[in-house]
Amino acid sequence: MSGYVRTALLLAALTALFMVVGGLLGGRGGVVIALLVAVGMNLFAYWNADKMVLRMHNAREVDARSAPDFYRLVAQLAEQAQLPMPRVYLIDADQPNAFATGRNPQNAAVAATTGLLQRLSPEEVAAVMAHELAHVRNRDTLIMTITATLAGALSMLANFGLFFGGGNNRNNPLGFIGVILTVILAPLAAMMVQMAISRSREYEADRVGAEICGRPLWLAAALEKIEAFAKGIDYAAAERNPATAPMFIINPLHANAVDSLFSTHPSTANRVAALRRMAGVADTPARGPWG
Q: Which residues contact 195 (CB under 8 A, 6 or more apart)?
């Protein structure tokens, strides 16, 4: 099953869950209010999230003068991906990592830590930035915004059901117990679907990023290195803002060994295995043009 199909099915499941919970909790007015509030919150985040996230991490914008090699690399990759040139940022942090943000390809930004440029080879840096440009091309920011809207609306709907629906809700076959179960289980189920979508988008970005840079094993090597460094190097800004962790190519807080239900990132070993299958070889790739 392709990443796009899986994401569409997960979004459909989240939408269906929202409708089922709305039916169980009754109050059509509560459904409308919760959805409107969630949409409003997420629309604000959608238009302003890039500025907010970049500010949280003290990212500084660079150009062809201030970071010529890195800027030129991103420009080459953007051209290869047939994307508009994104804004380019650097973050003064020792841990190697990177993320992409922006509501669409025309308003995108990519950011990398100084540790990424210092600790990885030019080929590995190219692969990482290709992965981030893949997120831009796949419009993953939009997908995750829709997901967050539905998950947030569902959580608010569950709270409204608890405080305003109570035991008088005739739509729930289990009465007040059913309301309590819905309030507890519905947001948990929504969070699990949301994280599954996040993991699915990472796999898809790996695949497209490998196609953009032309060397899947460059990205495989980069992922292994970043995970190893992330385990031993603290990232203070990420620790202060853990909600931004899913944006990074590797979890900057703690690397996960398995694809658990509550993990926002796939297992690095699984991602590397998929990239090696894509490459069809297990040896270190030849040097390329990204110097």
A: 261, 262, 263, 264
Beta strand 87-91 pairing with 109-113: parallel
224 is known to lie in a ligand binding site: no
pTM score of the predicted model: 0.78
- 131 marked ligand binding residue: yes
Query: In three state form, how does the secondary structure of the chain look?
Result: CCHHHHHHHHHHHHHHHHHHHHHHHCCHHHHHHHHHHHHHHHHHHHHHHHHHHHHHCCCEEECCCCCHHHHHHHHHHHHHCCCCCCEEEEECCCCCCEEEECCCHHHCEEEEEHHHHHHCCHHHHHHHHHHHHHHHHCCHHHHHHHHHHHHHHHHHHHHHHHHHHHHHCCCCCCHHHHHHHHHHHHHHHHHHHHHHHHHHHHHHHHHHHHHHHCCHHHHHHHHHHHHHHHHHCCCHHHHHCHHHHHHECCCCCCCCCCCCCCCCCCCHHHHHHHHHHHHCCCCCCCCCCCC
Question: pLDDT per residue over 16-53, tens digit each?
Answer: 666 666 666 655 665 666 667 666 766 777 788 788 88
Express each pLDDT in 162-194 by its tens digit: 665 554 555 555 555 656 666 677 677 777 776
Q: Which one-letter amino acid corresponds to residue 51? A: K
What does the domain layout of the chain look like in residue ranges? 3-279
User: Mind listing the pLDDT tens digit for each residue in 44-63?
Assistant: 777 887 888 899 999 999 99
> Which residues are catalytically annotated?
132
